[in-house]
C-alpha cells in the first residue's frame, strides 16, 4: 500500500468555488495550511506597445495530511 504525501497543493479550478476546493481537500484527508494567489496576465496592444493586463488570478492551497 502506498502512503499519501504529507503535503499536497490544490488549485482552485476555473469552474470551482473556494469552498468546493476546500471540500475536495477534506475528502482527500488534507487540511489547508497556506493560501497563495498568483495574478494571471494577458498581453494587449496599446499605443503600439505591448502591455500586460491582469485578467484573473490563480488560487492555490497547500494542504497537510490529517
UniProtKB/TrEMBL annotation:
It comes from the Bacteria. This is NETI motif-containing protein.
Amino acid at each position: 500500500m502506498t502512503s499519501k504525501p504529507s503535503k499536497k497543493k490544490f488549485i482552485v479550478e476555473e469552474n470551482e468555488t473556494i469552498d468546493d476546493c476546500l471540500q475536495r481537500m477534506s475528502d482527500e484527508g488534507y487540511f489547508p495550511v497556506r493560501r497563495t494567489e498568483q495574478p494571471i496576465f494577458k498581453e494587449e496592444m496599446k499605443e503600439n506597445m505591448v502591455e500586460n493586463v491582469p485578467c484573473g488570478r490563480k488560487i492555490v492551497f497547500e494542504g497537510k495530511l490529517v
